[in-house]
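Run log // design_07
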């Protein structure tokens, strides 16, 4: 009995939710966009669109070339989060959810009789049916079962859509040899380059490398952990705390200018500050980035970050943003560059209880002011009270869903 983990990965999640809620989209190639604009890209694609080569990151114009009849819809994050909670509850009704990994992924630990292959397979089918009952006929998922979470996730990616794959410890590592390096969770573009520079070009070579070799290539104990996970060992998770809080937004065409971008950044930062207080943290660094584009479709990036006196005070953070924005190149617009996407990140987080209040007063008043603003916005809506710099952007920058963060509908919803 080596099966310890069951991994659930929903297929084309955002697009599937849209197809579930809008029956006229079913069976069609669908691209989900952050904003309805020809100059943006897909943040999700339906199963039908993926079969035509359209995927996350595909530009609208390129998607139209691949599929003339593709239907584009604007992202509706609140509905995706609501469906997420419904589906988590459906899985929980069959088997305890050990951890939610993202908006469309979760895993469960197998115990007792569920560790037997036939029982695990029956449980997986039960979970699929519970998901269909709770979410609807379009909510397909791929399930992987394995001796640890890493192998179970790998198995879930081997057959899509609507797959079910079991990898037992006795199958390892040979059953992984046909995969590409990037098929393994934890091997991104930079790690792949590092592995190839170290003489490892295939998964088979990776599996045959020693723990010492992988420690050297990873630059630490992460390589030894990866070596053990490849063999199905049940490696405990390394506990980590939130390291940053941030928001980003693709600007619609009418807001692609310096003044509007600044207003949207104000709105994003006010949202991030409220989230920061919601997790009882303070930030010691502010990072701002802008992705620029010109009429020839060339792109460039501008960014700046500054160290802060650790705080979660909205006024202090907005003052820091205004200082950063003074460095934004004023000549960009004259040279044909316009801001296309922007973002703010609050980093170097620590617990708010560790904050040292100012000796010169004002800190207690700021705490009370922020608490009052948060309370009013939670009760009456997120735009009930706001700082004036965001006035021109109140209808923009709605809630977004990051890869590993499921938004809190109480703290982050725009309603």
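design_07 sequence
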């Amino acid at each position: 009995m080596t099966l310890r983990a069951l991994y659930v990965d929903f297929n084309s999640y955002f697009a599937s939710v849209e197809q579930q809620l809008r029956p006229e989209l079913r069976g069609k190639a669908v691209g989900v966009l952050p904003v309805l604009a020809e100059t943006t890209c897909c943040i999700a694609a339906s199963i039908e669109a993926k079969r035509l080569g359209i995927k996350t990151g595909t530009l609208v114009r390129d998607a139209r070339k691949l599929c003339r009849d593709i239907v584009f819809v604007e992202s509706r994050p609140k509905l995706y989060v609501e469906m997420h909670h419904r589906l988590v509850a459906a899985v929980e009704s069959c088997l305890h959810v050990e951890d939610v990994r993202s908006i469309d992924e979760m895993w469960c630990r197998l115990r007792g009789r569920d560790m037997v292959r036939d029982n695990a397979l029956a449980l997986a089918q039960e979970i699929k049916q519970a998901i269909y009952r709770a979410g609807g006929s379009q909510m397909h998922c791929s399930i992987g079962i394995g001796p640890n979470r890493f192998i179970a996730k790998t198995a879930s990616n081997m057959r899509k859509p609507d797959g079910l794959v079991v990898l037992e410890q006795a199958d390892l590592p040979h059953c992984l040899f046909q995969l590409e390096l990037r098929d393994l969770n934890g091997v991104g573009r930079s790690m792949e380059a590092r592995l190839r520079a170290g003489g490892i070009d295939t998964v088979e070579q990776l599996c045959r490398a020693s723990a010492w070799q992988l420690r050297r290539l990873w630059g630490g104990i992460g390589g030894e952990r990866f070596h053990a996970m490849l063999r199905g060992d049940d490696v405990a998770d390394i506990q980590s705390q939130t390291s940053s809080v941030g928001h980003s937004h693709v600007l619609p065409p009418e807001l692609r200018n310096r003044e509007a971008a600044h207003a949207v950044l104000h709105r994003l930062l006010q949202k991030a500050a409220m989230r920061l207080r919601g997790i009882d943290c303070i930030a010691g660094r502010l990072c701002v980035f802008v992705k620029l584009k010109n009429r020839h479709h060339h792109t460039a990036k501008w960014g700046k970050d500054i160290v802060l006196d650790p705080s979660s005070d909205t006024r202090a953070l907005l003052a820091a943003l205004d200082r950063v924005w003074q460095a934004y190149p004023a000549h960009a617009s004259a040279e044909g560059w316009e801001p296309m996407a922007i973002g703010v990140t609050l980093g170097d987080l620590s617990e708010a209880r560790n904050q040292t209040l100012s000796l010169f007063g004002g800190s207690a008043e700021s705490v009370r002011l922020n608490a009052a603003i948060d309370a009013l916005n939670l009760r009456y809506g997120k735009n009930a009270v706001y700082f004036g710099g965001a006035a021109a952007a109140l209808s923009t920058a709605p809630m977004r869903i990051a890869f590993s963060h499921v938004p809190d509908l109480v703290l982050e919803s725009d309603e």
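The chain has three domains: 1-170, 172-239, 244-412.
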